[in-house]
Amino acid sequence: MTPPTSWHPGEELLQSYVDGGLPGLSAGSVEAHLLNCADCRAQIGHAVEPRRLVQVKEALDDRLDEIARPRTERFLVRLGVDECDARALLAAPSMRRAWWLAVLGAAALGLLALGNTQDPTAVFLALAPLVPLGATAAAYAPALDAAFALVSATPYRTTRLLLARSLAVGTTSLVAIALASLAIPQQDLARVVWLLPSVALTLVVLSLAPRLGAGYAAGGVAVGWLLVISTLETRGIDVDWLAEAAAQVVWALLAAVAFAAVVHQWHRIDTRGIA
Amino acid sequence: MSLQVNEVRKSFGRTTALDGLSLDVGGGVTGLLGPNGAGKTTLLRIVATVLAADSGTVRVLGRDPGDAKDRIEIRRRLGYLPQDVGAYNGFSVREFVDYIAVLKEHRERRARREEVDRVLELVDLSDQAYTRVRSLSGGMRRRLGLATAFLGSPELLVLDEPAVGLDPQQRLRFRELVSNDPSRTVLLSTHQTDDVAALCRDVVVVNEGKVLFRGSPADLAASARGRVWRSEVREAGAELAWVAGDGSTRQIGTPPAGADLVEPTVEDAYLVLVGAKALQPVGV
Q: How many beta-carbon pairs below 8 A join chains A and B?
């Protein structure tokens, strides 16, 4: 119910308000009155140009859109990422799950290393590559994105979408593991030597995923990696061999080959769709 | 021709979904009829550039979906409704349509907003614009998918079972929507033979990855003349029979001499073509 009011702004004052010519305090006063006075609202309704109403509505909608956009999207746009790319990258709920996997996986890795007093380095090196590999596969996997069939029929390139998703989660994962590596008590090379195997194995997964599916590719590579580690362990070769220069060169080469395979495979996605 | 599919084969493991299927589709509405596992969805996914054929040639809007640039160009002119839209539950209706609009290159924010409003109005979802997807009924989800397909007023609409879950009023609205632009090409799959009869200029019956029939709905219905009859009880020549609303038994098959033949419907003709397979549960 409208409370009674004795004062009403005159026609001239209302027109100035409508034209945007009133200073802040006076405009605020008129506005407060308008909120409670249906007669004055009706009066200015005729005075406002329809074009201005449209402009105000559009500005309001723009502002609401801005507020409704997730913070992460706004952050990426501020960093210079194209607005559409940012939306495409962040919208799918499967991406949030992949990010959580990356962060929680790294945290679990840090805790495991911290809790293993016998050989924290060995535990860390053996398990570190599994985190980016799994998280990236989760970000890539079309099967985890419920709307993928619809999305993949849009002109937004499927490879661009999948590459952006994989890169974003893969990078997050590597940063999270770098932070988790601080849990290793010894100040040794273990804090960096996990990087190349992780990158190489993740790229191998991405090169296999278009044909095998992300789940099988990630599972196969993870099992293969653990088999190699445990086989070497049973033959008395410690996982510290990863720190040797020759091993790092091999991992770098594998990463390069896997990257070339990714580029080749992903061209196939652009012409033949996805498994 | 908007679509040309020639000798297309597609298999998933040991299962053959399309077995040398050929089909030309021009303007207007063409309906695909077939039992579950007939290959309809696979065909639509190939036409929508989501999937590639193992062999054969496909031209969509005069372009080759096997070429990366052509593929993008086709997608710019295509509206696709998959069998399962997979809309994100946590999104509002408007947010989801806006997301797909972004991917469909509606980059300018205000123009995109207007386009989203337009398609929501088309499918009668304006009042649910801020409703979460998880709260929508099956029919509303289907309309949400339709809204995304209509974004940008595409020349070609590829719709996989678009009328599933729609109530009679919404089905009429849907028929209006897809048929109001004769220059547009619409290829839709359905199990609803009455939709085909009411809506489609052409009907294609597909089974086991092959085309069994291609023609107008009237021609399809006429193809079953002399194969549909009614009597008091099921008779020996009947392949399919059911008790109709008037209490008589409607039968499809080889009628006995002197049978009371009736004018077949599109559904009768479809059943004659597909036979008992139409009654099988979901297969491939």
A: 90
**CA A235 to CA B165: how far, in whole Å?**
62
Q: Which residue of A has its CA nearest to B154?
A: A154
Q: In the predicted model, is pLDDT for residue B59 greater than 90?
A: yes
d(CA B136, CA A233) in angstroms, rounded, equals: 55
The CA distance from B11 to the nearest CA of chain A, in Å, is: 12
Beta B28-33 vs B202-207: how paired, if at all?
A: parallel
Distances (CA, A) of B136 to A51, A94, A146, B4, B142: 36, 21, 16, 37, 10
Chain B: residue nearest A86 by CA?
Answer: B102
Nearest CB among B88, B113, B158 relative to A146 is that of B88
- Cβ contacts of B68 on chain A, cutoff 8 Å: 267, 270-271
- The helix/strand/coil state of B234 is coil
Given this model, what pLDDT does residue A63 score? 84
What's the one-letter identity of residue B48? A
Candidate from B72, B89, B99 with C-beta closest to A155: B72
d(CA B221, CA B212): 14
Q: B235 vs A260, B251, B280, CA distance in Å?
A: 68, 8, 22
Query: Strand B78-81 relative to strand B3-12: parallel, antiparallel, unpaired?
Result: unpaired
Bridge partner list, B270: none
Give, in order, the Cα–Cα distances in Å from A118 to each of A111, A157, A166: 14, 49, 35
A233 CA to centre of own chain: 37
Q: What is the pLDDT of residues A22-34, one digit of tens each?
A: 888 888 888 888 8
Q: Write out the residues of chain A at the interface with chain B, using a CB-CB cutoff of 8 A.
A: 58, 61-62, 65, 68, 83-84, 87-88, 91-93, 145-157, 267, 270-273
Residue A90 clears pLDDT 70, i.e. is over it: yes
Chain A residues with CB under 8 Å of B50 CB are 149, 152-153, 273
Please state the ipTM of this predicted complex: 0.86
Q: Which tokens sit at A188? A: 């040794």
A-interface mutation test, from B46, B47, B64, B102, most A Cβ less than 10 A away: B102
Residue with tokens 């590579």: A221
Nearest residue of A to residue B100, measured between CA atoms: A151
Decide: A125 and A240 in contact? Cβ < 8 Å: yes
Give the rounded distance of the alpha carbon of A182 from its chain centre.
Answer: 24
Contact A140, A165 (CB under 8 A): yes
Tell whether the model's pLDDT for residue B278 goes beyond 80.
no
* Angle of helix A130-140 versus helix A158-180 axis, rounded to 10: 150
Distance CA(B111)–CA(A65), nearest Å, equals 13
